[in-house]
Amino acid sequence: MQRNLLAVAIWISIVADQSAGFNFDYSQTGQHYWVKEYPQCAGFWQSPVIIAASRSVTLPLPALEMIGYHDFLSLPLIFKNNGHTGRSFLYKLNYTGFTISFSRLISVSVRVKHEFTHRRFPYIFGALLKENEEYELESFHFHWGLKNSRGSEHVLHGTRYPMEMHLIHRNTKYPNLENALRHEDGLTVLGVFFHLEEDDNNMLRPLISHLPEIKWANSETQLNQSLVLATLLPDDLQTYYTYRGSLTTPPCNEVVTWIVFASSVPISYKQMSKFRLLSNGKSVLADNYRGIQELGNRKIYVRRMHPYFLSKNQIDDLDLSTLKWYWT
Predict the structure, then answer these.
(1) What is the pTM of this model?
(2) Residue 306 DSSP one-character state
(3) Could you list the residue range(s) of the whole structural domain that residue 198 is in?
């Protein structure tokens, strides 16, 4: 059956949402007030959290299967700095930062073009996701800091990386993202850390080279190169952490299965500085990350193919249906 796909739209958004009368921002005081407008932000399964091997359950979990990540994304790709969070375009999701959206919803806040193709959007399955369920890519975006010591939302082994990418996937049994937000198994988000190196990461150039063209709010440009999502991911995808949590921005729905990779992607100091030159219309666009949330009674699982498991054939004996997301 032929699928109606929208061209990829890329835009920059500021740290406040003016469209709903609620100015949410990432300052310590601002995050404190999220809960007044969105009570779910005070839930027990909120994200991000601190991740560490010492507080994780090590198991030989299934690999995460990623289909379509090595294919070229359809052109044209439109970079746009729209000066706000794109609230309506992402079905009332508030993602601040650098966002690439595959949304099916046409919005006045971004210019899109239609393209008809038989090819699916990239999708994932496996890991601790329910058997025979697939999650299709909806969008991805970045969180980064003004300084090199901060920027990522999750903290891994005591390290807060300068940038973190989130790839949002919708459970295909739900017709759209808005519907998926009503179900606890609605979304899976992949978390990817970026670490600093001296040399440029050539794989990031198709994106970063266009950032100066959209420095100011309400500016846009078109990417004239195809993009392969796999080039934005770590080389090692075999080790990952997974837990149940939430969106990291209002409305903070607790509908997310998080899969955070242990390996990170390199980015040079020069490339990182390009993100920090972007403007939200009032000041520098940076430090768009949420504070750490309490893990509570939740479990974090880590996939490791330790010789202990291999020698005892425990991979085949592992019954995923018995695993719980929380301690009893």
Answers:
(1) 0.84
(2) -
(3) 28-326
